[in-house]
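Regression check, D-malate case 411:
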Amino acid sequence: MATINDNYLKLKAGYLFPEIGRRVSAFAAEHPEAKLIRLGIGDVTEPLPAACRSAMIKAVNEMGDRETFQGYGPEQGFGWLREKIAAHDFQARGCEIDASEIFISDGSKCDCGNILDIFGDNNSIAVTDPVYPVYVDTNVMAGHTGEVNEKGEYAGLVYLPISAENDFTAEIPSQKVDLIYLCFPNNPTGATATKEHLKAWVDYAKANGSVIFFDAAYEAYIQDPALPHSIYEIEGARDCAIEFRSFSKNAGFTGTRCAFTVVPKSLTAKAKDGSDIQIWQLWNRRQATKFNGVSYIVQRGAEAVYSEAGKSQIRALIDFYMENARIIREQLTTAGIAVYGGINAPYVWVKTPQGLSSWDFFDKLLHSVHVVGTPGAGFGAAGEGYFRISAFNSRENVNEAMRRIVQKLMA
Ligand code: MLT
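Current build output:
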């Protein structure tokens, strides 16, 4: 008799975003006249930059010509894209990252989960609370946790609470952990990390032989020039960190799919026999076996992100969403709500009013003003009492959603 991976049975009922989708669909079916505004899932709304589109059209035409047709590409990604990433995203910021350390993929979410393939099953794992749910759920699926309690915490994980009291940056743990997930600018709180904060993590990881999984999917939203965009801006990070990056949020590739993961060749972890094994070599082997790369057409589109035209079009996209974030912050503050984030990140993290639970506030906004956000409790127990509002939408929808919310809250 075939059996299943029982770890899946430990997962809470649904992944956060499908659960929101389910509630929203049920509401929409009952109220087809309601004009819903979705500020829940962080999905982009504005069209792809023209530079990326032209590059992809050219690539489609190359695929139609025997002379320029491409079959399988390298599993790690095309050299011309990896070179551009290394030069623009890392070397230009003083980070010592080589093109061969960059692995192109179809998404950071996939890579964050897939990376667990090459790490052992006995690592102690730390996540912040609240946290992007993928880090937790993929560890549950891999059997790295025990059961979930009524607060939504899984036995065996080390939760590092983040709240307004610690500026939404976790304290360095007192115990030893092997794998640490960090996300800056942070999803869901919109918080950022200073170089000093990241330096403390790098020092901790080096002292304990830990590996940091650094998710920098939102780095393009950093406005403050003093803030680091990459963990490799911190000395020593090459020896203890893997970084996840994406074209989803800067160039609007959520539907186009292209991202990359940086695995420095100097990063090692222990084999059972105590020997030091290069992580790069394992990830390279994993990708070559389980992945056939991102399409040539999409990689050409991603390459155009680094052209002069691409850079200025992306700047305009980010400015657009950040103006939405500013409007959200301003309007909610006027309505007497405490807001965090939204200054160097496209997410505004809101304290729910009148002590409402985060799902109650979700239902209240959905039913009374037809606006969808994300309940903080969906990101972890410490997210209870908070609510995330995404700045990814049209200006018209953001203005309208804020008008409805403020009117309701001030009534
Ligand atoms: C979110 O809303 O948190 C994002 O959509 C996450 C993601 O990009 O997977």
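Comparison notes: Residues 41-43, 109, 187 surround D-malate (CB under 6 Å). The chain has a mean pLDDT of 96. No diff flagged against the previous build.
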